[in-house]
Request: fold
Amino acid sequence: MSQSDIITSPEVKYGERLINEGELITFPNPRIGRKYDIQITLPEFTCKCPFSGYPDFATIYLTYSPNLRVVELKALKLYINSYRDRYISHEESVNQILDDFVAACDPLAVTVKGDFTPRGNVHTVIEVQHQKEGY
Reply:
């Protein structure tokens, strides 16, 4: 097999397979009972506009106070990369990230903010929050 065959091969690449199989994985919080915040920045978020099909780019900011579980960062990276070929609005993508994160981690509190790159002279920032009842 030549180098050009490898590059143009229709086979799924290992990175694509990992992204497709990706799910949010967690591990036990090492400091249960201590209130602390984890801040994560994901500067290479991409998805596709459900109306035009054009790519949208954003930086996702995720800040949370863990309860019993903490998200594993490589799993989070693969999960975020799974949006790159999805036709999804800015609003829905940020809300879906929040829903999936809450389902996986059950944090005390979490904020997800999507700061989308301007397109057509329009800059959009979507911010959503969740707080555990009684917190």
